[in-house]
Amino acid sequence: MTRILTFALIVLALGFGFSWLADRPGVLSIVWQGQLIEMSLMVAASIIAALVAAVMLVWWVVNAVWTSPNAARRYFRARKRDRGYQALSTGLIAAGAGNAILARKMTARTQGLLNADQEPLIHLLDAQADLIEGKYDEARRKFEAMARDPETRELGLRGLYIEARRQGAYEAAQQYAEDAAEKAPYLPWAAQATLENRCRNGQWDDAIRLLDQQKAASVIERGEAERLKAVLLTAKAGEKLESDPIGAREDAKHALKLAKSLVPAALIAARSYLREDNLRKAATVLEPVWKTDPHPQIAELYVRARSGDTAIDRLKRAERLESLKPNNIESLFAVAQAALDAKEFAKARAKAEAAARIEPRESIFLLMADIEEAETGDQGRVRYWMAQALRAPRDPAWVADGVVSEKWLPISPVTGRLDAFEWKAPFGQLEGPVEDLTIENAIAAAPARAEPEPVAKTIVVEAAPEPRAEPKPVPAAPIEVAPAVSVPKEKKPATIEAPAETNAADEKAEAVPFFGGAPDDPGVKKPGVEAEPKTRLKLF
């Protein structure tokens, strides 16, 4: 485009010049060697322009002839280079696709067309071809040669790192990553591998330093860098909470400044304050995080912050959390638990049902079972709520790469990835609950409560087995005792006739149950009875 504009401007300038001369006619006279030459200015200008064009044409022809050997050489060299790069591109594509035959063929062609010292990608293609063919030792030697060259050092270390991990030599792979991160912290793979290794070894300060280098090199975004740094500070604080509570608290508070909703950092800072019996500052740390991200561990620590509190005090603290985050499942669940401990069953049941309306969970139905057992003791309804818990979705937990942990960890135990744990419902054996549960349907399908009055009446009726007491031989006692005790004979009919004259009601009132033993049991000697004569015949 520039050349076209330049050519147009030159043509316009020439046209303007010739038109200007045409408007101002004149005669040009030249005397040369006694000859007078006269011509108009227009003719003279045309001759000069023609001479300039002729000179330029002659110069171009002479220059082309003079430089033709070099031009021909450059042309063939460029053509050879283009063919070499075309073969290199085809070979790299074949290596990536796993075509070993084509990759090896293109490697040989590239080495013949290009100079390996000037094009490092030839070494990469050669190493990739060896890997496809299974020549791992050859490939490793070529990667090592590339690592010794400053121009291909990073590429060689990358190849050695991948090959070491493929063979399971994780220590060697980590060493390659350390070397690459030391010289080039802007490499994401090297920095990430080094960061994960330092986290696994508990080198939190070194990991934070490396993360700052990555942030300065713009390898990761600012928000992500601050989040990861907060995780590292939280892990560091958790390790030294027992030995240095104050230092752990400072690290945890720094982490909360970087990530305001990081629950583990808030828990560590609050526990540090609670070790000093400073409930006010512990609540100051927990309440903002609770407003942002309600968590059951925060609720448990907040409600049971002081061991000497009564159940009513714990209920008041749970209601304080509910006022900070109303209509939240965690707030309602915390109040329901505290109300159950305080024996306020109506409030506990109402809060538990409200939490179940928001999100049915296993723990909520188990809490309903606890409330039912503590309030009524109806085992039928208790078993019903426990059955509902079996069909309900699981409670959230700390999950990372399919692993469920009881507590938060900074890295994944499976992959070593930093900040991998999330608070979410773990995957069960089934993809979802057996059925969609709602608290209204569950309450409607619950069995009726057992009434205590009918149960008490049946117990009273069955507790007095009067017909069983009548057939027992009550008169047997005076028959056995009469011969043993020296009583006048005239009193004997009186003792026999007295029961005959009494009414049926009196007989029931005076009836004494028989507590005799087995036939072979000698029994206990009665204190008011004299010893029987030895000559008396005993049947038993």
UniProtKB/TrEMBL annotation:
Q: Name one Pfam family in it.
A: HemY_N
Q: Record keywords: Transmembrane helix included?
A: yes
Q: Any idea which UniProt keywords this protein has?
A: Membrane, Transmembrane, Transmembrane helix
Question: Where, by residue number, does the polypeptide cross the bilayer?
Answer: 37-62, 83-102
Residues in HemY N-terminal domain copies = 26-131
Please provide, in alphabetical order, the Gene Ontology terms of the cellular component aspect for this entry: membrane
Where in or outside the cell is it found? Answer: Membrane
> Where does it primarily localize?
membrane
Membrane listed as a keyword = yes
Using the UniProt annotation, give all residue ranges assigned to the region (Disordered).
487-540
User: Where is there biased composition of kind Basic and acidic residues?
Assistant: 522-540
Concerning InterPro entries, the annotation shows:
HemY_N, Mms48, TPR-like_helical_dom_sf
Q: What is this protein called?
A: Heme biosynthesis protein HemY
Q: Which organism is it from?
A: Rhizobium rhizogenes
State the signal peptide span.
Answer: none
